[in-house]
Task: structure prediction
Amino acid sequence: MAPSSVLLAILSLVSYVHGHVVYPPDSQVLDSDGHVRLHASQLTNVCKLPAPLGGYLSEGHVPKGSRNSPSAPSVGTLKAKLIFVDFPDTPANDTTQTLYNDLVPGSQAWFKTSSYGRLKLSVDSDMTKFYRMPKASTAYTFNRFGAKQELYIKDALAVSALDFRAKKYDVLYIMPTRAAVEITFSPTKISPTTFAGGIIPNIVTFGQDLHLKYGFKLLNHETGHVIGLPDLYPSDSTGLPRGEWVGGFDIMGLINGTHPDYFAWHKWKLGWLNDEQIDCVAAAGSSKHSLAPVEIPGGVKAIVVKLSATSAFVVEVRSELAPQVVNNTACPLGMVVYTVNTLGTNSRVPPILVLNTHTNLPGCAIDRGGRLTTATVDFSRGEKSFKSVPYGINIAIDGVRNGTYDITVSWNGMVGSSSAAVPGSLSPSPWGGFPKGIGSAFGEDSEEDGNRKQTELNGPLTED
Ligand SMILES: *[C@@H]1O[C@H](CO)[C@@H](O)[C@H](O)[C@H]1NC(C)=O
Ligand SMILES: *[C@@H]1O[C@H](CO)[C@@H](O)[C@H](O)[C@H]1NC(C)=O
Ligand SMILES: *[C@@H]1O[C@H](CO)[C@@H](O)[C@H](O)[C@H]1NC(C)=O
Ligand SMILES: *[C@@H]1O[C@H](CO)[C@@H](O)[C@H](O)[C@H]1NC(C)=O
Result:
């Protein structure tokens, strides 16, 4: 181990360098106040919150090869089979080609763009016909609380006589004719289905919300579950609007949102970002960072402040450089700040919660993300800092170069209430004020309010 004088010498270099810094392996890097600052390039696991035991549909990272790994790959080629169905009461009034066009090319392009080319969706589609289901479209009661999805799947597998024994697929997509208005929504079964033709690990049964609300990104949302991502919208039982937790910043929250991409946190979990593209802050102090926009390849994509074994505070940047397939807004861009809770589920506790830096504004696109559509800190609109009192974090934007935000993060070491996020418990907030001296250098601060909820864990095998 190097003596501390050497580490401090390394430090004085670090303080003035933006972007990547090469640190000696296994060293602690100290800032000028003697605080420890870690960088992901050699301390990758510190901020990589592990998935809680028992399931991969959480914000936690699942080690490769673990029993809880998703059954489908998020890097490489994801192999899908697509079939079309119609019903005795609603024979097809469209063609397999028009439905294919609505669903496939766009979602393939989305995965290619969002994953920076790391995930290829290959779709083997049976364009020959609509397989006629044995029962009327009404028989499957696809309303939200009573869909007979198992029966629907069983019937579709029987009429199409699929044979998956020779060729393996990661997911089966079942697409109904548009005439079948009763097939309203699109749940995903993420547990294996065994049938006469073999085993299929995951099945998405599409509904008319593809046409009526969401478009092809519905496939990217549902397939997001297949590769391990949870829902980020509050479930209907909460009575909260869909955009309540993450606005339109991630299609696992709102498929038709303003910024229809995945969060950098998701891209890291999926292996679309390298560990070197995450700046990990794991101890109190100040540090400088350069954040490149999430929607384009290259650069550091997130600053992660590790709050506890199950929670983190994350900063990322959205930009006008976003390719069209992941852009759906003229709303404010800039820095997005959110917390991650690996114990969260969509029944009550947000797995990800975007902090609203403009609680005084009503939002910019109410039907595409609600109030959080103005949650960003947008340098181009003269906004230069954000202070989160509950987490003791100050963020100052030092400048923006072609979409890249140069940022100073100061953390006083507080962890908010997230470290107390025990399933089933509702604990009072232990948050206090921001200590004197750290926050005073920042102008135009805004603060998010501190409401948080806690919930029990549950792991539904069908998601929508
Ligand atoms: C098929 O029927 C549905 C439901 O009535 C309708 O919305 C759709 O426009 C029809 N498509 C064609 C091509 O007529
Ligand atoms: C992003 O999409 C919005 C809405 O469609 C549009 O107004 C804006 O110009 C787009 N931005 C870019 C850079 O294409
Ligand atoms: C987007 O989806 C939400 C949730 O389903 C819906 O309430 C809203 O009307 C949709 N917005 C648009 C513009 O279609
Ligand atoms: C700005 O960034 C974009 C995307 O990375 C790049 O294509 C472009 O050349 C850059 N422009 C300048 C002036 O550096």
Q: What stands out?
A: The CA atoms of residues 331 and 364 lie 6 Å apart.
